[in-house]
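Methods, example record. To illustrate the input and output format used throughout this study, we show the complete record for cysteine desulfurase. The sequence lines were provided to the predictor; the line carrying structure tokens was produced by it.
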Amino acid sequence: MFDPKAIRKSFPVLDQKVNDEPLVYLDNAATTQKPLSVLTKIQRYYETDNANVHRGVHSLAERATADYEAAREKVRAFIHARSTKEILFTRGTTTSLNWVAKFAEQCLRPQDEILLSIMEHHSNLVPWQQVAEKTGAKIQFVGLKNGELDMEALKNKLSDRTKFVSMTQVSNVLGCINPVKEIAQLAHEHGAYMVVDGAQSTPHMAIDVCDMDADFFAFSGHKMLGPTGIGVLYGKEALLNQMNPVEFGGEMIDFVYEDHSTWTELPWKFEAGTPNIAGAIGLGAAIDELSALTMTDVAAHEHELIRYVMPKLRAIEGLTIYGPLDDEKRSSVIAFNLAGLHPHDVATALDMEGVAVRAGHHCAQPLITRLNTEVGATARASFYIYNTKADCDKLVEALLKTKAFFSF
Ligand code: PMP
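The corresponding predicted structure is encoded as:
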């Protein structure tokens, strides 16, 4: 039985007061809190096994290597990749998408097109702008319909010129869940590669990269109970074999001659230098935690919170909610604005009530511009496994208080 109150006990950070009110942490789309299992795993690693990986023959190096590679296998199983050769450890989604963009530089020619959606996070947009500048390829955008991805427009914009389709599975602003499996199929019919930004989906739902048939899939550890500074790029083995390494140096070579070098095999060909060993091991522990809960139950719990809170939020007069009209199509992100108030003021007022939400453009400025908000920003609440219906009530209550306070 999924019990968020019991789950909360593993998260010491949640047990505190902020501005004399119990903390209600609703900024999970930015980063999630870490359970004791992750914190102790990292501490134990440094206390008992700390050594550099792969090169050493002594016992500590062997233990560190075994744990680091075990984490890679945990990631593989979690996203249902075929082989650990397809799992590259990176710094996070941003680095992963930059690496894919580097690969795109190898492939793109001036008449080619890159298809993105208008809801992309800057990390799935700015690297593509750089690629477009360098190669002469053009970026096309798919817009919105009823607060979600306009699939008709997507079909119209796809053509045989399209070489890369890169889209988020879940928007960090709209909260909508995009049908990436269907999009991948359409992309492949046109001979394009499908890149999926899984930063906001991997923490919240079961992922099967083979079933969705993504060519590349990127996500971050820190949004799914893991530490910062660790993330993953999944790529199909055949593509990773074609892809040049992005960074060069130790660990990624096979043999170094005076005038040239050869690369080692996958996945290490991409992991130059000493990796974030503790980060990967921490991510492995986070995956253990989520797997024990099961991703089906994680998704079901968050949907229950959404179904519970959305009618209460809609009942607040003057509150504009962005994203899909159908709550069933929403992941655990809710962006909103209170009429006449800057979202920074709303977030500050909510903080006075102990409620942590985010305010700003959420690194999605083209989307925010398209949404035509009064001030080019929104507030955003986002849920995770430890949030309860009481947290939802507190959010609603704090919003009503904020509204009453500012109406004088
Ligand atoms: N894509 C999406 C949809 C995101 O929400 C985020 C994080 N806000 C990122 C990419 C970037 O992730 P990171 O900062 O961990 O690299």
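Annotations derived from this record:
The domain at 4-30+295-406 is CATH 3.90.1150.10 (Aspartate Aminotransferase, domain 1).
The first strand starts at residue 17 and ends at 18.
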